Amino acid sequence: xxxxxxxxxxxxxxxxxxxxxxxxxxxxxxxxxxxxxxxxxxxxxxxxxxxxxxxxxxxxxxxxxxxxxxxxxxxxxxxxxxxxxxxxxxxxxxxxxxxxxxxxxxxxxxxxxxxxxxxxxxxxxxxxxxxxxxxxxxxxxxxxxxxxxxxxxxxxxxxxxxxxxxxxxxxx
Length: 172
What we know:
- By secondary structure, the protein is an alpha/beta fold.
- The chain has one domain: P-loop containing nucleotide triphosphate hydrolases (Rossmann fold, 3-Layer(aba) Sandwich), CATH 3.40.50.300.
- It has a seven-stranded mixed sheet, with helices on both faces.
- The longest helix has 20 residues.
- The mean pLDDT is 93.
């Protein structure tokens, strides 16, 4: 299989992660999962545990809230499949850490473009389809998420939009 980047976006709870896991299971070989979420409260901890159960033991998990580009560089070529879940959580993490967001995004894009793994699935939320947020920080997050998603979709070989659990292929 040639190197391929597949980008999956959609609203929260639209079935993105389940879709990606089902697709990745069709590929033989070692699998890596880069998780960006942190268990900052009980409910998020429960969500993380549920995701771990869904993956099962066939995955090597890398929990990294900020430095996903570095994890990609470290593990590239060692896995048939890498899943990154989720970019909007990562974006929130780098915003709260006070990092240079556009520089971090470009660093990520560069790491993805040069990654030698066979297949990389990238999950992100589509947050720009709802109402205009009523505060500056939320509008900034929405705008940066749109920028991030456009950059990733631009280098992806395939893009899917998940709607109510149904994948719609929007780029091939």
